[in-house]
Design goal:
It is built from 4 helices and 18 strands. The chain is mainly β and about 220 residues long.
Amino acid sequence: MSALQVSINDQSYAPQRIFCIGKNYDEHVKELGGQTPEEPVVFMKPVSSIVAPGETLLMPRHGNLLHHEVEVVLLIGREGQDIPEADALSYIAGVTLGLDLTLRDVQGRLKKTGLPWELSKSFEQSAPLGDFKAYDSNSIDLENFSFICSVNGDLRQQGNTCDMLFPVRSLISTLSRWWTLRPGDIIYTGTPAGVGPLDSGDVVVIESPVTGSFSWTLARD
C-alpha cells in the first residue's frame, strides 16, 4: 500500500478523503469527560497523513501530548448516496485497523476556545493505516470485531465494534446523507477507551484476529 493507492484483489483504489468518527465508544467519551453525542461526530484528515505499516512516525513539533487511538477502518468500494442501513455493508471493499493520532494538549486548547480540531487531528503522519483485507460479510462480522493496541508490549486499548454507539451500518448510511461516498473513501470508525501517550522510541502495535498485526516506531525529527 502506498499513501495514495490501495489495492485489494487486483482492484485499485485512489483514496481522496478520510472521514473520522469521534466519540463512538461510550467508555472513551467518559474517560475524556465528554457528553454522549446524539449523532456521529465527524472530522476529516488529509490523505497525505496516511502512514504505511513499518514506517517511522515522527513526533509532531507543535504539541507535547501525543495520544494513540486504535480504530477499525473501512474502505468504500462503490459510489453511494442516501444509502439505507440495510444495504450499507455492500458498499465496503476492505477492512483494516488504523491509528487516529491526536495531540491531546492541542485539542484541549482548541476545544476551550471553540476552534476546529485540525491542528490536533490532521497533522502530518496523523493517520497510520494497516493493509486492507477484502471485506466478506460471510467471514468478517463488523458487529463483533475485536481489536487491541499495545505500546512497548503493554496492552493499552482493547475494543470491540459491538460497543459502538453508532454501528458501521449507521455510520455509512449517515455519512452518505451528508456526502456522496465514492470508491476509495476511507472511514475511521472511532476508538475505545484506553487512549494514552506516545513518546520517541515507543513501538505501537495494533492487531485483530481478522486483519493481523501492524506496527510503527516513533522518533524525533
